[in-house]
Amino acid sequence: MTTIEVKVPDYLAALAREAAVKEQTTIDQIIALALSAQLSAWKVRDDMDTRSRRGRPEDLRDILARVPDVPPLPGDEL
After folding, report:
1. pTM score, whole prediction
2. CA 6/CA 15 separation, integer angstroms
3. Does residue 78 have a pLDDT over 90?
């Protein structure tokens, strides 16, 4: 494990303490989980951005052209 020393606003520290008590765990665990969740969200955003740059409008048009032109199933109407 690596120890990281950070400064956080008092209100965030209080929220972390409250969450640790509520979840019956340590503040370290709460902060590690929060950091993990945020880093994962950033990775997903970056991955989606990378994939979106590979997309081409003509490919989307080709895919949509293959969709049959039929009325929606009952309950799927707008």
Report:
1. 0.65
2. 16
3. no
**44 burial class (0-12, 13-18, 19+ CB within 10 angstroms)?**
exposed
Crossing angle of helices 10-23 and 27-54, rounded to 10°: 110
Distance, in Å, from the CA atom of 18 to the CA atom of 10, rounded to the nearest integer, reads 12
Per residue, the 3-state secondary structure of the chain, as one string, reads: CCCCCCCCCHHHHHHHHHHHHHHCCCHHHHHHHHHHHHHHHHHHHHHHHHHHHHCCHHHHHHHHHCCCCCCCCCCCCC
What distance in Å separates the CA atoms of residue 17 and residue 25, rounded to the nearest whole number? 10
Q: How far apart are CA 67 and CA 44, in angstroms?
A: 28
Confidence class for position 46, pLDDT limits 50, 70, 90: very high
